[in-house]
Specification:
alpha+beta, 6 strands, PH-domain like
Length: 181
């Protein structure tokens, strides 16, 4: 009976293990796991860090230095550890692939699973993005927009060779559109 409780507690504490990064189809794209983990960690940690600083300064303004320091450092350490674990699990769950005429993207984030497929001939625009935070983490993102508007976008984060992948997808899109004509 204790084994079942231990297993249940580990599932509650950590969630299910992320899927190992495996080829989704014949042609998976290489992802920079360390850089992507750093990017996701900083992206979710910076806003909370700013909030913690403001909260500590508000408490400090009331004249209670010890209380301000305690609140700041305790919440900082807790959220830093939590943020690190979540970012690592998310980065390990990301899988992108291109097979034939279809682009596949799988992600899992805090128990939410997403799998998107997009026919290459439906892509209207392929944008290579690199924000200052992405530049710091040495990653890029590709935005694949679908004609028709709406929320029809797949964003591929952390590709090791994003410029090469972009060129490959543009060439595949041109070939698919020329084949239809």
């Amino acid at each position: 009976m204790e084994d079942n409780n231990e297993n249940l507690e580990s599932l509650i504490d950590n969630g299910p293990d992320p899927k190992p990064q495996k080829p989704l189809q014949d042609n998976p794209y290489e992802i920079s796991l360390n850089s992507l983990t750093t990017y996701f960690h900083l992206r979710q940690f910076f806003p909370v860090f700013i909030i913690l600083v403001v909260l500590a300064l508000r408490i400090l303004a009331s004249g209670n230095f010890v209380w301000a320091a305690a609140v700041f450092f305790v919440t900082y350490v807790i959220f830093y550890k939590l943020s690190t674990v979540i970012a690592e699990r998310y980065a390990k769950s990301v899988v992108y692939a291109f097979n034939g005429n279809v682009i596949y993207a799988e992600t899992a984030y805090c128990g939410f699973f997403s799998q998107k497929t997009l026919p290459i001939d439906k892509v209207s625009r392929i944008t290579l993005r690199r924000t200052p935070l992405m530049h710091f983490c040495k990653i890029s993102a590709l935005d694949l927009d679908v004609s028709g508007g709406g929320d029809n976008r797949i964003r591929l984060y952390g590709l090791a060779e994003a410029a090469r992948v972009r060129t490959e997808l543009i060439n595949a899109r041109s070939a698919a559109l020329n084949k239809d004509v």
